[in-house]
Amino acid sequence: MLRGENIKAAKGKLGVLLVGLGAVSTTFVAGVEAIAKGNAEAIGSVSQMARIRLGKRTENRAPLIKDFVPLAKLEDIEFLAWDIFEADAYEAAIKSGVLEKTLLDSLEPELRKLKPHKAVFSTDYVKKLSGTHVKKGANKLELAKQLMEDIDNFAKEKQLDRMVMAWAASTEIYLEADPVHWTIESFEAAMKDNHPAIAPSMIYAYAALKMGIPFLNGAPNLNLEIPALRTLAEQNKVPIGGKDFKTGQTLMKTIIAPGLKSRMIGVNGWFSTNILGNRDGEVLDDPESFKTKEVSKLSVLETIFEPDKYPLLYGDLYHKVRINYYPPRGDNKESWDNIDIVGWLGYPMQIKINFLCRDSILAAPVLLDLILFTDLAMRCEMFGVQEWLSFFWKSPMTAVGLYPENDLFIQQTKLKNTLRYMMNEDLITHLGLEYYNQM
Hints:
- By secondary structure, the chain is α/β, with parallel strands linked by helices.
- It has 2 domains: about 5-245 and about 360-420, Rossmann fold, CATH 3.40.50.720; about 250-355, Dihydrodipicolinate Reductase, domain 2 (2-Layer Sandwich), CATH 3.30.360.10.
- It is about 40% helix and about 15% strand.
- It is built from 17 helices and 11 strands.
- The chain has helices at about 25-35, 45-50, 65-70, 90-95, 100-105, 110, 140-160, 185-190, 200-210, 225-235, 250-260, 280-285, 285-305, 310-315, 360-380, 410-420, 435, and strands spanning about 15-20, 75-85, 115-120, 160-165, 215, 240, 265-275, 320-325, 335-340, 350-355, 385.
- The strands form 2 sheets. Strands 3-2-1-4-5-6-11 form a 7-stranded parallel beta sheet, sandwiched between helices.
- Residues about 435-439 have low confidence and may be disordered.
């Protein structure tokens, strides 16, 4: 790992390769363009808005993170996208209905330039969508090669120095690990044979990692966890991260659950339901895709509450998650949580949460931060799973054999301490020897 002045500079252009040009991607691209032009603020972005404390509190050193570590500049980003529909970024953003037309009109020249390439897609894996802007090939390995050709041409055209690929497309059907996933050789053979265990998101991940490009899995799809792709990332020294952007209801859970546990307040039940009407909601209306999302959302509370260690408080927790497709709501997702808690002497209480959020508005800054921090990790020669970025993931990946850390505040400490370590600053542990020597 390179640190301090040895970190490779963020010079030249950074290519951002987006799988999917729907609500999240168009909101992200439009936001980056508007912020780079000085017409908007990057609210919600840790990399752009947050400060980081350095040294003792008495030193009053708290620079912006973007001024502390060498991140790529927004004006140096170039975009490429794939989608199953031909609409350019302007047309896709209008259809998504997230951003006001007046804002999009002010960015129309920039957004019109982003025309998606044909996507690798099959209704076998996303059953509620269909599109005609889809690649064709003899087999799945051939499709991966077509993706690599798109990337290579883009890099040459834009004279890129570095790239990051991010999956910002739909949730695929639930898949479990298969023997064809064990090795790179068996994975490539399965691609040639069009094996059903090879989903489109795996093909994108393979293409990126094969070319030495970091890959971020913004959905709960099975891909980067499989041994073949992990091995490929390690061999080619590429950072990877996933999975599923942490935005609405799950963000609330990782804020509230740690607070309840820190005060040793018991929880008997946590019922969560959602309505949303964008393309993501339509996809999740299929039971097989919903199962993929459900597994991701259900995993959060167990790792925070640790029922094996605290059986009296959390051993009988009933956790239920529902997602309902409701077209009139569009991208404006609404979630309800009912939490049955237990206090002193076993007395019951309740917490009710009604979160009316804009899904893509929350996801766009998360996508930006992940891309910029992953590019930084690449320049620091940090490869494999980037656990220090678990702050942004609904279901964080870990090193083999470790459980994920889902407490948002522990995740934040890990994120900021990693940045301090990169820049040869002292880690913040709140265990200063000077204080304890005075006791």
